[in-house]
DNA sequence: GATAATTGTTAGCCAAGGCTAAACTGTTTG
DNA sequence: CAAACAGTTTAGCCTTGGCTAACAATTATC
């Protein structure tokens, strides 16, 4: 088994900082991160497609490729996946549409993204930095933290 | 080229929310996230190895596997990679050590991790949630944001 | 309307990061 | 000290998410 850890060096001397969390809790941290990574890119695609439709009227693969700084082949392949997942509909050589489910995901992702972005700005982070940080952070923020961020942002607005 | 976006639908009607950022800036967001993902796991391994050595006196592959909730084969493979990257030294069937460079990375990663964790707690996030969120967020927080988080945490401590 | 330019697709390659199964080594214990 | 057990490594498999090169379709231009 894995209760090996405990036995050898009960409390090594001269170490600073917090203790290690219990194994199960520690494991849960990394598992949560791996789970987030599984859906992260899909959420970003769906969110971007939604944004392109809202702001530009349509979402084309080339625009996605440019905005993501990725090759068109990569986008094409991902679109097939989104299709199989039931998140977008697409006819060959035509622009993209979100399914019901895709629209729901886009809306959720965008809301979350906005909360994080506005929070960072409220904290005093420069806009372009806030955008970069938010793009990554958004996928690792729990509902609990999200709520607290939102509350904080609102408080800053009305002091 | 890719200035296609501008031409077709100048300003589609009835959309809410912020405008899309310029293409180059938008692309930079996603690129930054991809870059972070490249080093993320390596940082987590090195940080954990450092923590195990500090708290337990040694770092063994089985402990890493347990704490990461990953198979021992996965750990073994990753250790070879860390070796090739000059971050750890290891003799077969023996426990692990960090190189100079590995120690530097462990220290930096841990410091960053702590700032994020303490910040979340100062914000009012529950400890176990804060730990989960911090594990993912830490890799997507810029130095600028990190500094601001640290300042915020200190202010909370001395009101 | 023919040709050029742009956009989209397909095929095939690669690295990262998981896994299981099997073999091997080191340690503990009867 | 031999056997059993625990820990480590290796081999081989899979999925994701990138890429380039070649080809196909659409759209723009003359
Ligand atoms: Mn987003
Ligand atoms: Mn994102
Ligand atoms: Mn960390
Ligand atoms: Mn981490």
UniProtKB/TrEMBL annotation, chains A, B:
Keyword Repressor: yes
Transmembrane segments: none
Gene3D superfamilies tied to this protein: Iron dependent repressor, metal binding and dimerisation domain (1.10.60.10), Winged helix-like DNA-binding domain superfamily/Winged helix DNA-binding domain (1.10.10.10)
Region called Disordered, residue ranges: 1-21
HTH dtxR-type domain location: 39-99
Keyword tRNA processing: no
InterPro entries named in the record: ArsR-like_HTH (IPR011991), DtxR_MntR_Metal-Reg (IPR050536), Fe_dep_repressor (IPR001367), Fe_dep_repressor_sf (IPR036421), HTH_DTXR (IPR022687), Iron_dep_repressor (IPR022689), WH-like_DNA-bd_sf (IPR036388), WH_DNA-bd_sf (IPR036390)
Subcellular location: Cytoplasm
Keywords, ordered alphabetically: Activator, Cytoplasm, DNA-binding, Manganese, Repressor, Transcription, Transcription regulation
Highest rank taxon of the organism: Bacteria
Job of this protein: In the presence of manganese, represses expression of mntH and mntS. Up-regulates expression of mntP.
NCBIfam families: PRK11050.1
Subunit record text: Homodimer.
Family per record: Belongs to the DtxR/MntR family.
Protein name as it appears in the record: Transcriptional regulator MntR
Organism: Vreelandella lutescens
């Amino acid at each position: 088994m894995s209760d090996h850890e405990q036995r050898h060096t009960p409390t090594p001397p001269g170490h600073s900082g917090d203790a290690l969390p219990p194994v199960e809790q520690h494991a849960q941290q990394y598992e949560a991160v791996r789970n987030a990574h599984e859906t992260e890119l899909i959420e970003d695609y769906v969110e971007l497609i939604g944004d392109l439709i809202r702001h530009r009227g349509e979402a084309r693969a080339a625009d996605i490729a440019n905005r993501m700084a990725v090759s068109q082949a990569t986008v094409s392949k991902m679109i097939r996946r989104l299709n199989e997942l039931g998140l977008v509909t697409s006819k060959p050589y035509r622009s993209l549409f979100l399914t019901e489910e895709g629209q729901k995901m886009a809306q959720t992702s965008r809301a979350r993204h906005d909360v994080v972005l506005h929070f960072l700005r409220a904290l005093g982070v420069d806009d372009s930095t806030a955008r970069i940080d938010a793009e990554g952070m958004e996928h690792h923020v729990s509902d609990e933290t999200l709520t607290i961020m939102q509350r904080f942002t609102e408080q800053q607005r009305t002091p």
